[in-house]
Q: What sequence folds into this?
């Protein structure tokens, strides 16, 4: 049996009005189309549902037995549709975003504020996870989109570059500016002018560190290593304590305490770090993704790319 909701609605309306003509008008179909639907319904049940004469249409005993059940089915189906539509609308109003802990701390509070001003009815759910988990959350659908410096090759993922972060040279306070100088003064350095003091780095397995090492090698510069860590925040703390300097993308800048460290942008474009939006291939993204990405870019440019 392949009974449709439309057939049951047609049956109930004919039973209520006692007329194929008037029922067809209310359903916005032809009388012939409605008659065909009812014949098909009768064929599925194996009995006549209406007695038809040139003057009247009346329910058969079998048809009368079907009316209550048909009304119940129609009511349940319409209620289910309402619930599913409401749930779908709620899902569209929830945006799930995966980022690293650094981005969650440095940018996302400001991004959430900027996004709330243009989309106040949208709820954001931010996953602050390790770099390697971002793509997994997007692939499994737990996150609608992710943002990441690193893209692992995958046929199930789409990516788009959204911004390039300048590289920062972060040094102990006083190395790049005179003590008592203006806080937050914009400094810049050419790659070859970076001071020759030990460098604190990320662990060698991080793709970001590998790109930094490649840029250092291409420039012919070499520095004494001074520890390798899994956290950018740990690196900054080590710099502030005077253990060396660090090279990191400017996404970290909002977390730098300029009372304790000096920062300078490396001016060469070749060391700028691409940053990507990631989403699942073939997935239809919520319409709220575009304004969110725009808000993210605006905040990132304002805080990290001036």
A:
């Amino acid at each position: 049996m392949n009974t449709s909701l439309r057939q049951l609605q047609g049956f109930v309306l004919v039973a209520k009005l006692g007329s194929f003509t008037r029922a067809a008008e209310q359903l916005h179909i032809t009388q012939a189309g409605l008659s065909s639907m009812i014949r098909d319904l009768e064929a599925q049940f194996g009995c006549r549902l209406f007695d038809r004469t040139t003057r009247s249409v009346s329910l058969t005993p079998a048809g009368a037995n079907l009316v209550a059940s048909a009304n119940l089915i129609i009511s349940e189906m319409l209620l289910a549709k309402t619930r599913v539509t409401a749930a779908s609308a709620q899902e569209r109003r929830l945006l799930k975003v995966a980022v690293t802990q650094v981005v969650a701390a440095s940018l996302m509070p400001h991004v959430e504020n900027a996004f709330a001003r243009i989309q106040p009815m949208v709820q954001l759910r931010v996953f602050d996870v390790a770099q390697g988990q971002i793509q997994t959350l997007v692939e499994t659908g737990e996150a609608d989109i992710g943002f990441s410096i690193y893209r692992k090759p995958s046929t199930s993922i789409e990516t788009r570059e959204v911004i390039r972060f300048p590289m920062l040279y972060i040094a102990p306070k006083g190395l790049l500016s005179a003590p008592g100088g203006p806080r937050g003064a914009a400094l810049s350095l050419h790659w070859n002018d970076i001071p020759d003091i030990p460098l604190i780095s990320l662990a060698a397995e991080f793709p970001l560190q590998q790109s930094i090492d490649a840029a250092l090698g291409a420039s012919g510069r070499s520095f004494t290593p001074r520890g390798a860590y899994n956290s950018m925040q740990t690196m900054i703390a080590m710099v502030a304590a005077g253990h060396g300097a660090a090279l990191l993308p400017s996404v970290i800048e909002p977390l730098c305490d300029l009372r304790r460290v000096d920062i300078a942008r490396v001016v060469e474009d070749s060391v700028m770090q691409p940053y990507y939006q990631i989403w699942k291939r073939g997935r239809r993204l919520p319409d709220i993704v575009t304004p969110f990405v725009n808000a993210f870019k605006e905040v990132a440019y304002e805080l990290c790319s001036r």
Observations:
- The CA atoms of residues 179 and 265 lie 19 Å apart.
